[in-house]
Every structure is written in structure tokens, then in C-alpha cells.
Design a protein that fits this description.
Blueprint: E1 6-9, H1 14-20, H2 26-29, H3 33-38, E2 43-48, H4 51-57, H5 63-73, E3 78-83, H6 96-108, E4 113-116, H7 127-135, E5 139-145, H8 154-166, E6 171-175, H9 183-196, E7 201-204, H10 212-221, E8 226-229, H11 243-252, H12 261-280, H13 286-289, H14 294-298, H15 302-314, H16 321-334, H17 344-358, H18 367-374, H19 386-393, H20 411-417, H21 425-433, H22 435-459
Parallel strand pairs: 1-2, 1-8, 2-3, 3-4, 4-5, 5-6, 6-7, 7-8
Helix pairs in contact: 6-7, 6-21, 8-9, 9-10, 15-17, 16-17, 21-22
The structure holds cobalt (II) ion (CO).
Length: about 450
């Protein structure tokens, strides 16, 4: 019998985030939810990452309400979210009580699969979220932030997979956020993991460098079970490869694919219109859809490269770009080869720019890099360069163990602080994650409700 390959649709989250900075409001995709539900996906990725932040910051939407509405419209498909381990949806570590309640409420509001990663691949930063997911009855997908370096061997990745399994992961995701994984590497890495554990493996990549279709094919050959794709109008470039194209190629190669082509065609017709609106208003720029091989040469993720360029431009120092590109991998090596993903990509990039412009390496460092050297972000893949660490820390002490253990509980004090303002624990969680945004959202919601009350009195 033909082996089955399953699909995760990313149009509601990663494609939306990668191409149009997560600006898709609920009303724009609402008409398609019941259609997506019928297509035959393993899961629909629809929450987490930047969705929560952008709902509150730009779309004036309650992210929890969005999740509940998606759940109601899609009773047959698993809903999936991306969670940054102990960082949850933010950029720094939170106390355990917040992580636990957040995961519990995400599952209560409809989440089925929680994909949990850590920027340093430090599993002790993933443990609390993994256990909370399992306790809430959802699927914990233990995730590897994929990167290449002298210390990132297949043996190390396999060791990590075994630890994640121990923590309750029922699937493994290899997350190639920069789209730098090539087909042979995919084949070798998936084979190594499949040899070591009997667990479903999902591969997540981006089309940025143009490798993704080939990478998925070789990964499938090596036994990958699930791939992440985006419906064609929201595919390509910094997004994922197209769903329909992968389904077509895999069927031709003799694999079984559950997707209903009639349904994916309806989705494609609909989302073409949505995409064209975002092109017309300038949100979707042509560059985001193009292939960019620069990061294969420099080993710097595409998003990070454009950040470096805009930083230098602001400082009127764009002519130093070549030096910064040479300095970036050196800083990364000094820092123990962190994968370049939020927030480490920003930290390493800013430090490389500073080193070049100041003219002396590590004479000036950000407070984030200092915290990183203290151990607040977790254990680095390789040790940090001792000499540089001593220069940065001076007399400051390194922390031992897990940074979150030093943080006081935050949920109960916040509940008390928000008495009369927060209507639910979900509100409390939104506030802890993004205090200013949530406060603004609560005020606007109140004003809107008062308006509605007045209106209904007049109507009566
Ligand atoms: Co991604």
C-alpha cells in the first residue's frame, strides 16, 4: 500500500506572517474556514507566532475570540499553534504559572496541536510547556530549531529528539525557519531521526532560497510523515511551498495524499482575491515572493539580512555591509552557535553591527547580550567564548540552572491587579503577554460595549 504523506496548511499563520506581516483580519478568511475544514489536512496552523501580538496591536481583535471562532467553524480539522517554549509568544522568559495557564487555556479554547520550540534548542526551556500540553490532553509537538554549525550534528539532534519524547512529545517537528535546509541534508537528518525513534516527523521549511520543494521530496523519501505547505496564492518566497503542487508531485510519485483537489481549488480561487488586495495596498511586496539565494552564501537568514541592511541604512553606514556580513558568523561562533531565530537573530545582528561601527569588538554590548552571557536564555549549543564572556560580564555572576526558576509567580498578582477590568483568565493572560496592547484593547472594548448599550436602549 502506498505510504501516506499528510499536510499542515499554513495560510492562516506562517504564510500570513511571512508574506503580509500577519495582517489578515478574521473577516478576510472567515468565509473559507468551513471549506478548509473539508480539505483533508492533518492540521491547520492558525495561532501563535505573531498572530496574538498583531491581533491586539493592529487588528483590534481578541486573539482568544479568534481562536474560538476558528474552532467553531472547523470542527473536523486539528488546529495547531506555534509556541516559543518558556517565552510563550514573547521575547523573554515567563514564570511557569503563566506558561502552564496559557497552554491550558489555549487547549480549552480549541487548540489540538502545540508546536513547542526554543531558540537555543535548550530542552529545559521547553519542559513546562510540553508537560502542560500533555496534561491538557493536546498533542505536544517537540520542535528542533534547525541550524548548521560545527556543533549541530545529527547525533546531537537525535539526542534532543529522545529528550523531547521523554518529556511527552508525540510528534517531532524539524523547523527550518530560514529555508536553508537542502535536499540531501533533509534526507540524512530525517533518516537519522527515524532510525532512532518511532515517531511521526513533520518538516517545516520556507521557500526563501528555492530549495523547499526538493527538500520536501527528499524528506518524504526518507520517511517524513507531515509537511507544512501554503495554499498556492499565499505560497513561495518567504512563505511555504504550494500545497497543490506538493500534493500533485507526491501523488505522481505514488504516495497517498488525503487532500481533496476540488476543495483546495476553491481555497485557491478565494485566496487569490485576498492576495491581490494585499498587493494593491502595498502590504505584500514582490520581493517577499521572490527567490533569494543570498542566505545560502552568507548563512544569514533572509529576514535578518534585511534587518541588518535597514539598521546600517539608518546609521548612514550601508557601505559597511560587507564587513557586517563577515562579522555576523564570527559573533555567532563567539556566542556558542545559537540558531538564528527570534530573539537570537536580532541579538547577534545588532552586536555584529556594533562591533563593526565601534571599531573594537564587544566594547559596547546590548543588555540582551549581557543577559545571554549570564545564562538567562538557557544553555548555548557550544560554550560562549570565555575571554569574550569575561569581558562582557566583568564581575557579574552567571546564573545556574533554569532562569524561569528565579521568576516569581505572576498570574495571581495580575488577576488582582486587573479586578474589574479583566473579564476572564484569557484577558489576564493577554495582559501578561502584552500589557500595553491589552490595556488599550480592554478600553476600546469597553467603549464599544457602552456604545452598544446606548444603541440598544434607543432601539427599544
Ligand atoms: Co516558519
Amino acid at each position: 500500500m502506498a505510504r501516506k504523506v499528510q499536510f499542515v496548511e499554513t495560510v492562516l499563520r506562517d504564510a500570513n506572517q511571512s508574506l503580509i506581516a500577519t495582517r489578515l483580519p478574521f473577516e478576510k478568511f472567515e468565509p473559507m474556514l468551513s471549506t478548509i475544514d473539508k480539505a483533508g489536512y492533518y492540521a491547520a496552523e492558525c495561532w501563535g507566532g505573531a498572530t496574538f501580538d498583531v491581533c491586539l496591536r493592529y487588528l483590534n481583535e481578541d486573539p482568544w475570540e479568534r481562536l474560538r471562532k476558528i474552532r467553531a467553524a472547523m470542527p473536523n480539522t486539528k488546529l495547531q499553534m506555534l509556541l516559543r517554549g518558556q517565552n510563550v509568544l514573547g521575547y523573554s522568559h515567563y514564570p511557569d504559572d503563566f506558561v502552564k495557564l496559557f497552554v491550558k487555556k489555549a487547549v480549552e479554547n480549541g487548540m489540538d496541536v502545540i508546536r513547542i520550540f526554543d531558540a537555543l534548542n535548550d530542552v529545559k526551556n521547553m519542559k513546562v510547556a510540553m508537560e502542560a500540553t500533555v496534561n491538557a490532553g493536546a498533542i505536544a509537538s517537540g520542535t528542533i530549531s534547525y541550524t548548521t554549525s560545527p556543533v549541530h550534528t545529527h547525533a546531537k539532534y537525535v539526542e534532543m529528539v529522545k529528550e523531547l519524547k521523554e518529556m511527552g512529545a508525540s510528534t517531532i517537528c524539524i523547523k527550518d525557519m530560514a529555508g536553508i535546509m537542502g535536499p540531501q541534508e533533509a534526507y540524512d537528518m530525517v533518516s537519522a531521526i527515524k532510525d532512532a525513534v518511532d515517531m511521526p516527523i513533520d518538516l517545516h521549511t520556507h521557500s526563501t532560497t528555492g530549495l523547499a520543494f526538493m527538500t520536501y521530496l527528499k524528506a518524504v523519501e526518507a520517511g517524513v510523515d507531515i509537511i507544512d505547505t501554503a495554499i498556492s496564492p499565499f505560497s513561495g518566497g518567504t512563505s511555504q511551498p504550494a500545497t497543490e503542487t506538493m500534493a500533485y508531485a507526491l501523488r505522481q510519485l505514488g504516495y497517498e495524499v488525503d487532500l481533496d483537489d476540488k476543495i483546495t481549488r476553491q481555497m485557491s480561487d478565494y485566496f487569490k482575491g485576498v492576495r491581490d488586495e494585499f498587493i494593491a495596498d502595498g502590504t505584500l511586496i514582490p520581493k517577499a515572493l521572490a527567490t533569494d539565494t543570498q542566505c545560502l552564501t552568507y548563512q544569514i537568514p533572509g529576514g535578518m539580512l534585511s534587518n541588518l541592511m535597514s539598521q546600517l541604512k539608518q546609521m548612514n553606514a550601508l557601505d559597511r555591509l560587507e564587513e557586517v556580513m563577515l562579522e555576523t558568523p564570527k559573533v555567532r561562533a563567539d556566542m556558542g552557535y545559537p540558531p538564528l531565530v527570534t530573539p537570537t537573530s536580532q541579538m547577534v545582528g545588532v552586536q555584529a553591527v556594533t562591533n563593526v561601527l565601534v571599531g573594537e569588538r564587544y566594547k559596547k554590548v546590548s543588555k540582551e547580550i549581557t543577559a545571554y552571557c549570564r545564562g538567562e536564555y538557557g544553555t548555548t549549543p557550544a560554550p560562549i567564548n570565555e575571554e569574550i564572556k569575561a569581558k562582557i560580564l566583568g564581575d557579574e555572576k552567571e546564573i545556574e540552572g533554569r532562569y524561569a526558576d528565579t521568576l516569581a509567580p505572576i498570574v495571581e498578582p495580575t488577576r488582582q491587579k486587573l479586578a474589574g477590568i479583566a473579564k476572564s483568565d484569557e484577558d489576564v493572560l493577554s495582559y501578561i503577554a502584552f500589557p500595553n496592547l491589552a490595556e488599550k484593547f480592554f478600553e476600546e472594548r469597553k467603549a464599544k460595549e457602552e456604545n452598544e448599550v446606548t444603541y440598544s436602549i434607543v432601539e427599544a
